[in-house]
Amino acid sequence: MITYTEKELVRADELAGNIGGFLNSIRNRSRERIAIVRGDRPEAVLMSADEYERLCEASELLEHLEIYKTVRDREQTPDEAYITHEEMLQKLEGEQE
Fold this sequence. Notes:
Largest sheet: 3 strands, mixed
CATH topology of the domain at 6-48: YefM-like fold
Oligomer: single chain
Radius of gyration: 24 Å
Strand content: 15-25%
Order of helices and strands: EHHEEHH
Number of strands: 3
């Protein structure tokens, strides 16, 4: 779970009353992120578009690495460890009965 500093936590009504000021604090980097709190818990995070894009790119890279690992693992699996499509259908039909 991510933790936030007191400076990063902003009530939704406070944000609505001064959105320009909070956006400026993100732009001039006096705040890296703002956790918008409604009730007693954060509901959303405000961050720069550059940081959001960086996080999206990092997430995509991780997804590609996971796919690569799956492919590498499957390349190491001997052919006899796999079952045919027909065998899988028979197995699934047997489970439905």
